[in-house]
Recover the amino acids of this structure.
């Protein structure tokens, strides 16, 4: 187990370093600069600002400065956000994304798992086709289309919720419904495929031959192994939901982390863009580590030897 944890910790450090380097290189190679919007300032003032931001130094020096700041927890200042440090911006925006993403994940599991299980237990029936039709609709409906439709129906027409903004206690409902329905499609398909494959295994036929009830066969024997493919999907999916869906937050005008990520890339705010990317990568690593633990508990044959 210690070897497993040590290997995952080393992998996490390498992943975070790679994310910081790749994000920095992509931002540097993109057209524009942090001073692009300041077109009417004199050249000597522009040069002073470049020196103040460290943009006049070689790129490897700039990259090392960013890596050193993040690894020593001396977080840099975002010049495009009123001189606040990037950790303050993430601490302010992440709770909004976490509330919406957590609710969306619960909605996705609450819709997707029962649909997938029903389709797997009644293959080639009307129930199976109906569930897969709904799942296919969810896969084909991007949040850029589904979000405005949800806001139009429940916000502008029925006036049950605010169509956009973050003002009332229930403003998480519409974006969470949008994301939950979209993610439930993949969860339903993975649940159906995993459960169908598990129900065809030899040990399931053995359990049925010994007289086990169908409920015991499904929930005690088959379901925990059928969840393994779903768990692999839920790791990065949960991280993506908790850090904010970029399109959904823009559609519903939420002050979440996704909007800061987009704004930092557009404004060439290197510090905030790298911080958001590193935070997203950290969540993915953490959730994947949690998934590895759960898989080892559900299936002892996996164990800790995968490290």
């Amino acid at each position: 187990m210690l070897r497993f944890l040590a290997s995952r910790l080393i992998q996490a450090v390498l992943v975070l370093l790679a994310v910081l380097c790749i994000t920095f290189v992509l931002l540097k190679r993109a057209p524009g600069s942090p001073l692009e919007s300041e077109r009417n300032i004199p050249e000597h003032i522009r040069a002073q600002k470049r020196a103040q931001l460290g943009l006049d130094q070689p790129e490897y020096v700039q990259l090392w400065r960013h890596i050193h700041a993040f690894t020593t927890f001396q977080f840099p200042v975002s010049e495009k956000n009123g001189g606040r440090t990037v950790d303050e911006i993430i601490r302010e925006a992440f709770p909004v994304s976490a509330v919406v993403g957590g609710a969306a994940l619960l909605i996705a599991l609450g819709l997707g798992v029962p649909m997938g299980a029903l389709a797997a237990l009644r293959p080639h029936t009307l129930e199976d086709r109906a569930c897969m039709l709904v799942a296919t609709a969810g896969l084909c409906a991007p949040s850029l289309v589904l979000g405005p439709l949800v806001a139009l129906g429940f916000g502008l027409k029925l006036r049950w919720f605010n169509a956009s903004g973050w003002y009332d206690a229930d403003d998480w409902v519409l974006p969470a419904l949008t994301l939950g329905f979209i993610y439930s499609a993949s969860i339903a398909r993975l649940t159906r495929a995993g459960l169908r494959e598990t129900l065809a295994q030899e040990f399931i036929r053995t359990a049925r031959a010994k007289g086990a009830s169908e409920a015991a066969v499904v929930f005690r024997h088959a379901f925990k192994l059928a969840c393994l493919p779903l768990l692999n999907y839920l790791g990065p999916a949960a991280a993506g939901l908790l850090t904010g869906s970029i399109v959904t937050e823009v559609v519903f005008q939420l002050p979440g982390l996704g909007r800061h990520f987009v704004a930092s890339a557009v404004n060439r705010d290197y510090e905030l863009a790298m911080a958001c990317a590193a935070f997203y990568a950290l969540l993915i690593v953490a959730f994947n580590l949690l998934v590895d633990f759960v898989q080892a508990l559900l299936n002892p044959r996996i164990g800790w030897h995968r490290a």
Remarks:
- The chain is about 75% helix and 0% strand.
